Amino acid sequence: MKFIVTGSLGNISKPLTEILVARGHDVTVVSSDVNKQAAIQALGASAAIGSIADDEFLRFTFQGADAVYAMIPLSFTEPDLGDYMRRMAKNYVHALRATQVKRVVVMSGWVADLIKSENLEHDFDGLEATLTFMRPGSFYTNFYQHIDLIKGRGLMGKLLTLRYSGLWALITGKTGLLMGNCGGEDRIIFVSPKDIAEAVAEELLLRPEQNTIRYVGSEELTCNEAARIIGTAVGKPWLKWVLLTDKAMLQGLKMAKVPEKLAETLVEMQAAMHSGKPLENFHRNNPKMGKVKLADFAQEFARVYHQK
């Protein structure tokens, strides 16, 4: 079968490509970086170099595809995240409709249904294709972005904002704390991108009669439990994830020069997680947990951490 994988060689798209190629499928990987072309081809896939902001490029790339994995990379240069996501989704819809692709798997987030203004799932309405919206929990790979801050090197005392699948966090290297208006003893579904890739590969081969939603997780932990696992792996078992008020979170984001509308959206997303409703939805759908636990990932994280 012919599959299109967007997301270049990202945390999900690379293992997804490896899985599909190993199973004998024809895979084309979309990347905006021409320097990734050789690495894509080394995986046994074809490279389509261009941007999802270019719907003509997408129409050309999607021709003859049996299924498409569609994801929208985040942009921290966009002051209005919702508007950006809608524009990119519109490009996908135009290309999918023009090429009559019948099966689409869309990367969404586990708080998607709770943040109405940012719910890109609605932007895919009306397609003559069956869609599955993937709703993974918080990515393990989020912690890679924290390395310099955990070390207290370079960015000491500064706040940095991060988002993965609906999870926004603040971390400061000076105190060795993770912070956010979701944190502390809040329970979170964490997930390995490898487990997400396996789930996406399964979905690409399915032909359901109607649109579906698939939640994906690897392990359920409190934020403090997750911080302790990561901290222990790097020799800092005291690492904590401090729960902030919505107001304090908003103030921190503004201090970090995040545009006001974007900052308000981030606070809303974490507040939804803090409410426990995404966890209720996850349990209601009762998905099978993935194989990779946070303690497994923490060993990989520690190796990278100590090399830097």
From TrEMBL:
Domain of life: Bacteria
SUPFAM superfamilies referenced in this protein's UniProt entry, alphabetically: NAD(P)-binding Rossmann-fold domains
Xref: InterPro entries: Ergot_Alk_Oxidoreductase, NAD(P)-bd_dom, NAD(P)-bd_dom_sf
Gene3D superfamilies documented for this protein: NAD(P)-binding Rossmann-like Domain (3.40.50.720), UDP-galactose 4-epimerase, domain 1 (3.90.25.10)
Domain NAD(P)-binding residue range list: 7-113
Name listed for the protein in its UniProt record: NAD(P)H-binding protein
Organism: Mucilaginibacter ximonensis
Top-level taxonomy: Bacteria, Pseudomonadati, Bacteroidota, Sphingobacteriia, Sphingobacteriales
